[in-house]
Specification:
The chain is of the alpha/beta class. Helix content is 35%, strand content 16%. The chain has five helices and seven strands, in the order βααβββαββααβ. It has helices spanning 54-61, 67-79, 117-135, 166-179, 188-209, and strands at residues 4-7, 82-87, 98-103, 110-115, 139-143, 155-158, 213-216. The strands form two sheets. Strands 6-5-2-7 form a four-stranded mixed β-sheet, with helices on both faces. Strands 1-4-3 form a three-stranded antiparallel β-sheet. β3 (98-103) and β4 form a beta hairpin. α3 (117-135) packs antiparallel against α4. The longest helix has 22 residues, at 188-209. It is globular and about 45 Å long. It starts with a strand and ends with a strand. Residues 6-39 have low confidence and may be disordered.
Length: 217
């Protein structure tokens, strides 16, 4: 039985995922549509100007973001043109000591519900997948262990192959996280070495533009 703790309403709505619309004429189920290449391939970084467009701004406002938070997100986009997530899907993530917020029927209150660590991280990564799609913020996600087929690729990204592919990338990333399950060990050092090599290859461009790569472990 799940443990529930009731909490009072927050002064502003909690951010909630916003489904990414599929562009007109772009049908990911159509076999004639060419998907982006699997896994991160583009090494060149596109530096953001730090200004979010109206659609992005309205999408954030609908989630409860304040103008100050939106401004900070734009500045963050400019400082960090790429972010890399290492997502723990090892066997220990099956432990039931995680927690998640569940909205109650009145639409105002939330309750904290006990869940597995994996369920907690699934919801966290799913939100950031959608946020990356909304902001067109290049984000690479690396599962510690290969999830196997048909879950998907161990390494996947959003907003890394042009705007036309973002909706497809969001859909694939969400599907991979939903189908993957915790198993295996924790080969963190292998990922750290790979990320180090990737960032070193980008160092000349990063240094010349005063930018950084965000790494989330």
């Amino acid at each position: 039985m799940e443990n529930e703790v009731y909490v009072h309403p927050y002064p502003a709505p909690l951010p909630v995922p916003v489904p990414m619309p599929i562009p007109s004429g772009y049908n990911v189920a159509d076999p004639n549509v060419v998907a982006p290449p699997p896994g991160p391939t583009r090494q060149q970084l596109n530096i953001h100007n730090g200004i979010l467009d109206n659609g992005q701004t309205q999408g954030l406002i609908s989630q409860g973001y304040t103008q100050g938070m939106i401004l900070a997100l734009g500045q963050n986009m400019q400082s960090f043109p790429m972010r890399i997530w290492v997502v723990d899907n090892s066997g220990s993530m099956a432990s039931v000591d995680g927690s998640r917020l569940v909205q109650m029927g009145n639409g105002l209150d939330y309750k904290i519900v006990t869940c597995t660590r994996w369920k907690e991280i699934q919801e966290t990564v799913d939100y950031h997948i959608q946020l990356a799609g909304l902001l067109k913020a290049r984000s690479i996600f690396r599962l510690l262990n290969n999830p196997g087929q048909p879950a998907g690729q161990q390494i996947f990204e959003v907003a890394g192959n042009g705007e036309d592919h973002i909706s497809y990338e969001v859909e694939i990333a969400q599907s991979t996280m939903m189908k993957a399950s915790p198993s295996g060990v924790t080969p963190l050092s292998n990922h750290i070495y790979d990320i180090r090599e990737q960032v070193l290859n980008l160092a000349p461009q990063l240094n010349s533009q005063g930018s950084k790569v965000s790494i989330v472990l």
